[in-house]
Amino acid sequence: MSIPAILLAAGKGTRLRPLTDHIPKCMVPIRGRPLLDFWITACHEAEFGPIIINTNHLAEQVEQYVQKSPLSKDVVLVHEKELLGTGGTILALKKLLTGTFFVAHADNLSVFDMAKFLTAHSNRPQGCLMTMLLFETPTPESCGIVSLDSRGVVQEFHEKVPGIKETSANGAVYLMEPEVLPLLENCKTENPDISLDLIPQCLGQIFTFKDVTYHRDIGTVKSYIAAQKEFAVLQSTHNDLDSPGYLQK
User: Fold this and answer.
1) Per-residue pLDDT averaged across 190-213, rounded?
2) Which end of the chain has less neighbouring CB within 10 Å, N or C?
3) Burial of 13 (0-12, 13-18, 19+ CB in 10 A)
4) Residue 190 pLDDT > 90, yes or no?
5) CATH of 5-239 given 3.40.50.720, 1.20.120.1810, 3.90.550.10, 3.40.50.300
């Protein structure tokens, strides 16, 4: 079964300025390797395809990078003249999404087992429309925090709520079923968002996967600097971390 992969990469990265004044957020380097390279390689190794990347801010840099990549044949670039929102991007691609599909925010740096993630989704409880990657966060007020039942199904979702004490956070990486598309279409917002518009409609229907070696949202300069340091330590204990495809091993 072919599983399309959508890598959300069009954001302007305003919180990462001044770095993103000159480079797209999805292309910022981690120890010399662009974030986007981790995701393209992981999707290729998992045999997901096509790998669809949306572009907007400094799109020509993403296009040039993909053209030079040995995996360019796997990639489809979709330019958004105006940002559609994370859910809006999915809706724009709905003709391709007839079965299970993968979605990831390409400004995240994640080390996890893609094959286990897919297995978890395949074995999800009946009635679940998606599986969400979870990670433990030390800063729950800056994340989307979930509360789970005994099956690992999301019952509550709190997006960036001050004072919250739970620490299981949405990694913004998903396997979804096409049944989510009508829910996005019924959103009242013009440019629907996965976290703000889709997830609240799917409570009780979101399975979760939590088997993450490393996860960080590269959303701010502070988190970017931290990722460089943390990843250097991780590389020292994982000899194959630099090699393409590590994310799915």
Assistant:
1) 93
2) N
3) buried
4) no
5) 3.90.550.10
